[in-house]
Amino acid sequence: MKIEGIELRRxxxxxVAPFRTSFGTETARDVLLVRAVTPDAExxxxxxxxxxxxxxxxxxxxxxxxxxxxxxxxxxxxxADAYAVERALEPFKGHRMAKAALQTAVLDAQLxxxxxxxxxxxxxxxxxxxxxxxxxIMDSVPELLDAVHGYxxxxxxxxxxxIEPGWDVEPVRAVRERFGDDLLLQVDANAAYxxxxxxxxxxxxxxxxxxxxxPLADDDMVQHAELARRLRTPICLDESIxxxxxxxxALTIGAASIINIKPGRVGGYLEAKRIHDLCRAHGxxxxxxxxxxxxxxxxxxxxxxxxxxxxxxxxTSASHRYFAEDVTPPFELDDGHLDVPDGPGIxxxxxxxxLRAFTTATEWITL
Length: 367
What we know:
Elements: E1 5-21, E2 24-37, E3 42-47, H1 60-71, H2 82-89, H3 96-114, H4 118-122, E4 128-130, E5 132-135, H5 141-154, E6 158-162, H6 169-179, E7 185-188, H7 198-202, E8 212-213, H8 221-230, E9 235-237, H9 244-253, E10 258-261, H10 263-266, H11 269-281, E11 285-288, H12 295-305, E12 337-339, H13 352-358, E13 359-366
Parallel strand pairs: 5-6, 6-7, 7-8, 8-9, 9-10, 10-11
Antiparallel strand pairs: 1-2, 1-13, 2-3, 4-12
C-alpha cells in the first residue's frame, strides 16, 4: 500500500459536564486526528494525548510536532502496512500516543481497502461488549450518588470511581451502601497515593472492589508490588504499562494482577493485542480503558474490547457520556452493551458537517 499523504486535524469537543480526576478537571477535549490517504482508501486515527502533560508526558501540541517533524517523514513510501509503520517508528523513543494515532490511521486505510473489520483482524470473538462508566470526583457525596444512580439507570454494568486522598473511603462506602453488594465497583487513583498511604488504601478492602487502579506513581512497579502484598483488593496498572514487556515485568514481580489496556498509551493496537495475548496466556484479566475518545477512537477501542481476554467491562461508554454531539454517528448503550462495528476498518467515518464544525486547524503533509 502506498501512502500519498497524511492530514493532521485539530478539533475542539466540549464535554457535557466537567470531568475531574486526581490530576485535574477537563471541560473540553482538544483532539488531534490523523487521516492517512492512499490510492485505494483513507483511514483515521485519534491521538489520545491531552492538551496538558498531566496524565502522561505527552500532550496534543507535542504529538502534532513529533508527527510532522519525525514520524510522518519516517513512514515507508511503498509497501506500507501497520507492521511496516510500527517498524519505521520504533527507533524514535517514546511518543506512543502519537505513534498509535499514525499507526491506526494507516491500519484503518489498510483494512478498508481489504474490506476487513478491525475487530476481525485483531481476533475478536464477540459482536457486542459490556460497558462500564468512569465517574469523576464530585463536590459532595450526594452529588456522587445521584450521578451513579443515573448511570445505573442508563444500564451501565460496572461503575468506576475516581479517587484521591480525602475522596476515597467515604465515597466508596456511600456507593456500596446505597447500591448494594451486587454492584460491580472499582476505583481509579491515577497515581495519587504513595506507599505511606497503604493503611488508608487497605480500608478499601472492606468494600469488595473489583480492583484499585494505578494507586501509586507510574514509574514505581516495586512499590506497587509491596502494596499488593498489603491489600486484599487486586491492583490494576494503567499508566505504568507502556508495552507488552512492561506488562510482563509487572506480572513477574507481582505489581499487578489485572491490566488496563489503552491502545494509545502502549503505541497502538498491535502492541495492545500483544499485551492481551500475554495476559490471556497467563490467566490475567484485562479490560479496555478510555481517554474520553470521540467516536473515531471509541470505535477502535470497542473492536479491541471484543477480544476473548477482555473479561472485565471497559470504560468504552456511550458517546453521550461525554459529548452532546459526536464527530461520528453516536454509539448508544443497549442493555449495558455496545455493538462492535462490523464495517471495514474501524467501521465508522466522521460526519462531514460535524467534522467541519468542530475543526480548529488542518495540515496536509505529502509523502
